[in-house]
Amino acid sequence: MDFKENLKRYLCDEEIEKLFNAQVQERTNSLILNTKKITKEEFIRKYNKVEEHPFLENVFYYDKNLYPFGKSYEFDNGEYYIMDASSLLISHFLKIEDHDLVLDMCAAPGGKTISLVLNNSDKQFSVISNDISYQRSLELSSNIEHLGFDNVLVTSNDFGKIYQNFYEKFDKIILDAPCSGSSMFRKNKLAKDDWSIEKVNRCAKIQKELIEMAYFMLKKGGILSYSTCSFSYEENEEVVNHLLNNHSDMHLLPIKNENGFFFKEKDMLHIFPHLYKGEGQFLALLKKDCETSSSQNKTKNTTQITHKDLLKEYNLNFSNEIVIKDTIYLNNFAFNYEKLNLIRPGLEAFKINKKIFTPTFALAHYLSTENSIKLNEDEKNKYIHGEEIKKDLNLKNGYYTVSFENLNLGYVKYVDGKLKNFYPKGLRH
């Protein structure tokens, strides 16, 4: 069975032809703003040829030939995150409440977690952002670092081996399941060459196993977001119906039908590139019956803060401190994460070398620009090139953030009129 035959399970010939025609067109490009670093109005003034998304807040389409956003110091320093507009729908529809504990099961490279945090910056909640691949979880951790989040734990676990430890623990679960990737065809030719019905069926088997794990870990009253970047019925409606048939306490939540959405079955959303400006997605939201308060069943973490003077110096308010090798991480998680393989247990705040505490790149992005050293454009260019900067200031020697146009770039060490550069070598250009 080829791809076109597979689509006939739920699409008519006319719809299939439109989908195929769209997949040979140029792909779209979009991003979501980090409004803690730049407002929508400032962004539009700076880049007046971007196109605002019709209903996703702080999301813009852009021409990558006009604006190479992925190669800018603003991107490196967390002013925005580049992400397909189809995938952004997950964080748009999954409503977060204060004190929610969220699990992103298959998170790398991090877009679902990042957009969820950016869309809910006014909420107090925590995310465990996981990927089974250690290497991909490192990429995920790096992306989180650039944004400077304090409410995300990055982990690398095979939940098939540990999910029994988390019975009804999470208020929200994002399962963006590994799939055959048919919505990636115009982004990645290898995905098209690699597609087969055998791969679809293998993925569907894994997806059913993962969604059962998610059900086990979801609290009563909790919401599960199930999504794929596949157009195949076997990986989408069939997986959701499998869960619904096995668990009478799960039911679908309605999804608002915007222009450009496609529903084959009620409340199960398909995004197609010929109907919506994006690469494609399947999404369903499912709720477990019998609501409980989000504050129930929380496990209080017993970790203590041992470097109170250090946190006071930087005006940091955290309840938990974790030291891994030479790095201090900070978080406010009321959760026992002993069973998790931690990659980034919160905000990476300080490096320790011979009892000397050096603030990190991630901490610079977490802090406001209020007390930063303001750089002019020439100094900014020198800084992101990795150069030392001469700047006589009425400051005592020590570590300071530096900023340009209200965007923290990183740290320097001020020593007798010189700014010693701590910009990461991998980002210098």
Structure write-up:
The protein has 429 residues and is α+β, with helices and mostly antiparallel strands. The protein is 27% helix and 26% strand. Helix 10 runs parallel beside helix 11. The protein is globular and about 70 Å long. The model has no long low-confidence stretch (mean pLDDT 94).
Report the sheet-strand fraction: 25-35%
Using the alpha-carbon principal axes, give the shape: globular
Q: Please give the radius of gyration in angstroms.
A: 23 Å
- Fraction in helix: 25-40%
- Strands, count: 23
N-end to C-end Cα span: 48 Å
Overall average residue pLDDT: 94
List the helices and strands and how they pair.
Layout: H1 3-7, H2 13-22, E1 30-33, H3 40-46, E2 51-52, E3 59-61, H4 73-76, E4 80-82, H5 88-93, E5 101-104, H6 111-119, E6 126-130, H7 134-147, E7 152-155, H8 159-162, E8 170-176, H9 189-194, H10 197-217, E9 218-228, H11 237-246, E10 250-252, E11 261-263, E12 268-271, E13 281-288, H12 308-313, E14 320-324, E15 327-331, E16 342-345, E17 347-353, E18 356-359, H13 361-366, E19 373-374, H14 377-384, E20 389-390, E21 398-404, E22 407-415, E23 418-421
Parallel strand pairs: 5-6, 5-8, 6-7, 8-9, 19-21
Antiparallel strand pairs: 1-3, 1-4, 2-3, 7-16, 9-13, 10-13, 11-12, 12-13, 14-15, 15-17, 17-18, 20-23, 21-22, 22-23
Helix pairs in contact: 10-11
